[in-house]
Specification:
CATH architecture of chain A: Orthogonal Bundle
Helix content of chain B: 55-70%
Order of helices and strands of chain A: HHHHEEHHHHHHH
Shape of chain B: elongated
Shape of chain A: globular
Strand content of chain A: under 5%
Number of helices of chain A: 11
Oligomer: heterodimer
Number of helices of chain B: 24
Radius of gyration of chain A: 19 Å
Largest sheet of chain A: 2 strands, antiparallel
Number of domains of chain B: 2
Number of domains of chain A: 1
Distance between the termini of chain B: 44 Å
Structural class of chain B: alpha/beta
CATH superfamily of the largest domain in chain B: P-loop containing nucleotide triphosphate hydrolases
Strand content of chain B: 5-15%
Number of strands of chain A: 2
Strand order of the largest sheet of chain A: 1-2
C-alpha cells in the first residue's frame, strides 16, 4: 500500500514535469503549426545546463533562475535561425529539419559534456526526507520540485488567461489567420511562443536534474512522452496537456508497480484507448 | 498531378546507377560490398515508405517497426545452429511485418494528419518496447542469427546468404523488383485511388471509395515490403537489436524519403544512397580529417538542414519534369447538346421523419419527403434552416438521430458514405471539392472507377465530360478552371460516377449569369436520366430549374409542391420569399 502511495506521488511529480515540456510542445504546434521533434533536446540541454551552472552558482535553484532567461534567449535564436523558415512548409519538412536539429544538439552535448551520465547535487538543505506515515518517508527535494512545477503551471495559466499576450495566444490558437488579419505581428508572437516553449522545457530539465541526472538521450524519452501527452490532451490545448500529463505520469508509475515488464507499453495503451474513444484527444476540436 | 512514368533522362540515369551498382563487387573490396548491400536493403525499405508518404499521403512515423519485425522473423524461423530456408525466412519477414501492419493499421487508420503521425510513432515504440523489455528474443541485448539462411534444392545450394557477393546481387535484384512492382501498383487502378485519397479523401468517400480499407491495404503492403527488407537486413550481420524498431530509425527513413523527394519512388532510392554515402564520408577520418569525422553528426545535421531549406522538393525535384504549363483558358465552352442519349428511369429518394440534433438544436426535425425519379427537386430556406444537414443525412456524412432514408424501397439509413455512394447517390459539396492537381479526365476517372472496370470507365468519362460541356478541356489541370467551371467539373464527376441521384449543394454559388444559365440548362437536361436534389439561393435559377420546391425553416418542412403552388403559399411568402423580395 505504501508503495502505491509513493508511486502516486512520483506519478504526479513526473506528470507535472512532463507537463512543463508538453505545454511548450502543444503551444508550438497549436499556434505555430510546427511539429518540433527537437523539443526534447531543450529538456536535455536544460539538464546539462544545470550540471554546468550549479557548481559556480552554488545550487540548482540559482541555476534555474539563470537558466530560464538563457533558455528563452536560446529559443529566440533557434526560432530565428531555423524554425521561422518552416511556417509555410509542410509537416514532412518540419520533421526533417527538426530531426536534423536533434543530430546537431546531440553532437554539441557530446562535444561539451561527453557521453557519461552526470549527477547533479541536490541542495544540501533539501537532502532530508520527511515522514508521511509511520513507514513512509519521501525526499523533500521531490516535494519542492512538485511545488515548483505547480507554481510554473499556475503562472502559465495566469498569463494565458488574464494577460494581453495570453489573450492573443488563445486567439491565435483558435484562429491564426484571423489574428494576422487583425494586424497583430504574428512573427513576434510566434517567436515569443517558441522561446517560451524552450524555456519551459529547459526549466523542467534543470529542476529535474538532481533527481533524474543528466545523460545523453534523456531528451528522446521526454520528447516521445510529451508527444503522447499532446495527442491525449488534444493538440494546442494547455488544459489537455495538463490532464494528459497527469494521466500519463500516473499510468507510468502504476504500470511500474503492477505490470513491471510492460510499464513502457502502458502509456501507449492509454493513448490508444483515448484516441479510439476521442480521435481528436480529450480537449481537442474534432 | 497523377503519378507519371519517370522521364527518359531519369530512366537512363536509373539504369546507369543499376549497372554501376552491379559492378561494385568487381571493382571494390568486401567492405564496400557490405556497405552497398546495407544501403540497397535500406533503399527497399525507404521506397515502401514513399508508397505511404508520397503516394497515399500517410506520414507513418513507425515504419521501422515493420523493418524490425521482418528482421526478428528471421531469428524466429532460424534453428539454433542450423540455417533456415531462405524463402521461408523472407516469407516469414513479409508475413510477420504484414500482420503487425494490419494490427496497428486497424487503429491507426481511424486517425489523420498529426494524430496519425503520433499514433504510428507510438505503435513503433510499442514494438520497440516489446522486444526491448521482454525476453521473447533475448531482450535489450539483441539476438544472433547464428547461421544465415540458405536455399538448397536437391542437394545443391542455390542461394547462400553467407556468400557476400551472391547476397548482394539478391538484394539488388529485390530492389529492382520492388521498384518495378511499386511502379506498376501506383499506376494501377488501386494506385490511382491511393493518389486520389492523398489529395482529397472526403471526395473519394463521397464517390464511393471505402477509403479506410484502401488506406489499410496500402499500409499492409508497405509493411510487408519493409518486412522483406528487414529479413534481408538480419542476414547482413546476423545480429539484430530492438533499436531497429526505434523512432530514430523511423525518423531516418522519413528523412531519406524527404531528402530524395516524395512521391517519385526513385527519389527514395536516391535519398537512401545520398544519406548513407554522406554519413560514410563524414565518418571516415582519412577523407575529411579527424576534426570533421569526430563530430560527423554535427555536419550531417547541418548538411540536412541546408538540404531542406535549399531543395524543398528533395533531390529528385532537381531532375523531375517541370509541370506542363497549362494553356490559358481560351474559349468558354458551349454546352455540347449534340450528345444524344436515351432517357432512363432514375431512382427515387424518400425520407421518413428524418431527425438530427446538434446538442439541443434540432437541425433537421422530422422531415418526410418523397422525391420522385427523373425530376429536379430544389430545397430552399433561410440560412441555418438545416438544408446542408439534410443533404449530409442523405449522403451518409452524418448519421440521423431518428427516421429513415430510402432509395426506391431500400433502406439506407445509417450507411457509411462510400456505401451510400455505391447504391446510387452522388453529391457535390458547398465548397468546391475536386482534385485540383489532376486533369479533368483524371478527376472523372477516379469517379468512374469507383464502380466500373477500367475499359468501361474510359467511355463513361468522355460521356460525362461531353454532357457537362467540358469535352475540350479534358486534359487541363482542374485547378486552372474558373470557379464556375469547377462546379461543372463536379457535376461531370457525378455523371461519371454513374450515380442516379445527384445531391447538389449550391451548384450555382459564385457563378455569373451566363454560367448560371448554362448550368440550369444542364440540370434540366440531366433530369432525363437522373434525379436531382439541389440546395440553392438563386431564386430565379430555382424557378427555372426545379420541378418541385421544398421550403425548410428551422429544420421543418414549411411547404412542398410545384414551384408555382409554393410561390402562392402565404406562409412561405411571409417566412421566406417575402424577406427575399424585400431584400
Amino acid at each position: 500500500m505504501d508503495l502505491v502511495l509513493i508511486q502516486i506521488l512520483n506519478g504526479l511529480q513526473y506528470g507535472l514535469l512532463i507537463f512543463l515540456a508538453a505545454s511548450g510542445l502543444t503551444l508550438v504546434f497549436g499556434i505555430l503549426g510546427i511539429i518540433n521533434l527537437s523539443h526534447g533536446s531543450f529538456y536535455m540541454l536544460g539538464a546539462y545546463a544545470a550540471l554546468t551552472l550549479t557548481e559556480p552558482l552554488g545550487d540548482v535553484f540559482r541555476a534555474l533562475a539563470v537558466g530560464i532567461p538563457l533558455a528563452f534567449l536560446f529559443g529566440l535564436a533557434i526560432e530565428w535561425l531555423f524554425i521561422r523558415h518552416l511556417y509555410k512548409r509542410d509537416h514532412l519538412q518540419q520533421v526533417l529539419l527538426t530531426f536534423a536539429m536533434i543530430l546537431i544538439f546531440n553532437e554539441v552535448q557530446q562535444t561539451i559534456w561527453g557521453s557519461h551520465p552526470h549527477s547533479i547535487p541536490t541542495p544540501p538543505y533539501l537532502t532530508a526526507s520527511i515522514r508521511l506515515t509511520e513507514t513512509l518517508s519521501y525526499p523533500v527535494y521531490r516535494l519542492v520540485l512538485t511545488a515548483i512545477c505547480v507554481a510554473l503551471a499556475l503562472a502559465m495559466v495566469i498569463v494565458v488567461q488574464y494577460t494581453r499576450v495570453g489573450r492573443l495566444i488563445r486567439a491565435a490558437e483558435s484562429n491564426r489567420e484571423m489574428v494576422e488579419t487583425l494586424g497583430f505581428d504574428s512573427e513576434l508572437l510566434f517567436r515569443f511562443v517558441f522561446a517560451t516553449g524552450v524555456a519551459l522545457a529547459a526549466a523542467a530539465g534543470i529542476i529535474a536534474a538532481p533527481v533524474e541526472s543528466a545523460y545523453p538521450g534523456i531528451g528522446d524519452k521526454v520528447l516521445i512522452i510529451s508527444f503522447v501527452v499532446v495527442v491525449i490532451g488534444g493538440i494546442g490545448s494547455i488544459r489537455g496537456a495538463f490532464v494528459g500529463a497527469l494521466l500519463i505520469g500516473l499510468a507510468d508509475a502504476m504500470g511500474k508497480v503492477f505490470l513491471p515488464s510492460l510499464a513502457s507499453v502502458m502509456i501507449y495503451a492509454v493513448m490508444a484507448l483515448v484516441l479510439v474513444l476521442r480521435p481528436a484527444g480529450l480537449f481537442g476540436r474534432a | 498531378m497523377m503519378f507519371r512514368w519517370p522521364s527518359l533522362p531519369v530512366a537512363i540515369a536509373l539504369s546507369v546507377v543499376f549497372v554501376a551498382l552491379a559492378c561494385v563487387p568487381f571493382v571494390l573490396g568486401p567492405y564496400a560490398v557490405k556497405f552497398t548491400t546495407r544501403v540497397v536493403v535500406l533503399a527497399i525499405m525507404v521506397t515502401s515508405l514513399d508508397l505511404l508518404i508520397g503516394i497515399t499521403g500517410l506520414v507513418s512515423f513507425g515504419h521501422a517497426a515493420f523493418f524490425a519485425l521482418g528482421a526478428y522473423a528471421v531469428y524466429f524461423v532460424s534453428p539454433e545452429s542450423l540455417s533456415a530456408n531462405a524463402l521461408v525466412a523472407l516469407a516469414a519477414g513479409a508475413a510477420l511485418a504484414a500482420l503487425g501492419a494490419l494490427v496497428i493499421g486497424v487503429f491507426a487508420m481511424l486517425t489523420r494528419g498529426f494524430y496519425f503521425i503520433m499514433v504510428t510513432l507510438a505503435a513503433g515504440q510499442m514494438v520497440f518496447s516489446m522486444f526491448y523489455d521482454t525476453n521473447i528474443a533475448k531482450g535489450s541485448d539483441g539476438a544472433y542469427v547464428n547461421v544465415k539462411p540458405d536455399l538448397i534444392v536437391g542437394g545443391l545450394t542455390v542461394l547462400d546468404f553467407d556468400n557476400r557477393t551472391q547476397f548482394f546481387y539478391l538484394c539488388l535484384i529485390l530492389l529492382a523488383t520492388t521498384y518495378a512492382f511499386l511502379l506498376w501498383l501506383v499506376r494501377s487502378r488501386f494506385g490511382r485511388s491511393l493518389q486520389g485519397i492523398r489529395i482529397n479523401e472526403q471526395r473519394m468517400r463521397a464517390l464511393g471509395y471505402d477509403t479506410y480499407t484502401y488506406r489499410l491495404a496500402v499500409f499492409v503492403i508497405a509493411g510487408a515490403i519493409a518486412g522483406i527488407a528487414g529479413a534481408l537486413f538480419a542476414s547482413i550481420d546476423g545480429y539484430i537489436t530492438p533499436e531497429l524498431a526505434s523512432w530514430r530509425e523511423s525518423g531516418l527513413a522519413i528523412m531519406m524519403v524527404v531528402l530524395g523527394g516524395t512521391g517519385t519512388l526513385y527519389g527514395a532510392v536516391i535519398g537512401a544512397f545520398a544519406y548513407s554515402v554522406l554519413e560514410e564520408i563524414l565518418k571516415s577520418a582519412s577523407t575529411v580529417g579527424p576534426f570533421i569525422s569526430e563530430h560527423w553528426r554535427l555536419w550531417m545535421g547541418l548538411a540536412l538542414a541546408v538540404a531542406v531549406l535549399g531543395a524543398p522538393r528533395g533531390l529528385a525535384g532537381l531532375f523531375a519534369r517541370k509541370p506542363t504549363a497549362g494553356k490559358a483558358s481560351a474559349s468558354i465552352d458551349v454546352l455540347h447538346r449534340d450528345f444524344a442519349r436515351p432517357a432512363r428511369r432514375a431512382q427515387a429518394l424518400s425520407t421518413r421523419d428524418l431527425t438530427r440534433y446538434f446538442g439541443g438544436l434540432r437541425a433537421v426535425d422530422g422531415v418526410s419527403l418523397d422525391l420522385k425519379g427523373n425530376l429536379v427537386h430544389a430545397i430552399i430556406g433561410p440560412n441555418g434552416a438545416g438544408k446542408t444537414t439534410f443533404i449530409n443525412l442523405l449522403s451518409g456524412e452524418l448519421k440521423p438521430n431518428g427516421g429513415r432514408v430510402l432509395i426506391d424501397d431500400i433502406d439506407i439509413t445509417g450507411w457509411p458514405p462510400h456505401r451510400v455512394a455505391r447504391s446510387g447517390i452522388g453529391r457535390s459539396f458547398q465548397r468546391t471539392n475536386i482534385f485540383p492537381d489532376f486533369s479533368l479526365r483524371e478527376n472523372c476517372g477516379l469517379a468512374a472507377e469507383a464502380r466500373l472496370p477500367t475499359g468501361a470507365a474510359a467511355e463513361r468519362i468522355s460521356h460525362a465530360l461531353a454532357v457537362a460541356g467540358l469535352r475540350d478541356r479534358a486534359d487541363t489541370t482542374a485547378g486552372q478552371l474558373s470557379s464556375g467551371e469547377q462546379r461543372q467539373l463536379e457535376i461531370a464527376m457525378l455523371i461519371a460516377s454513374g450515380a442516379d441521384l445527384l445531391l447538389l449543394d449550391e451548384p450555382l454559388a459564385g457563378m455569373g449569369p451566363e454560367e448560371t444559365q448554362r448550368v440550369v440548362a444542364l440540370l434540366r437536361d440531366l433530369a432525363r436520366d437522373h434525379t436531382i436534389v439541389l440546395i440553392e439561393h438563386d431564386m430565379d435559377a430555382v424557378f427555372a430549374a426545379a420541378d418541385t420546391l421544398t421550403v425548410l425553416v428551422q429544420g421543418r418542412v414549411l411547404a412542398h409542391g410545384a414551384p408555382a403552388d409554393v410561390r402562392g403559399n402565404d406562409a412561405v411568402r411571409e417566412a421566406y420569399l417575402g424577406e427575399a423580395d424585400a431584400a
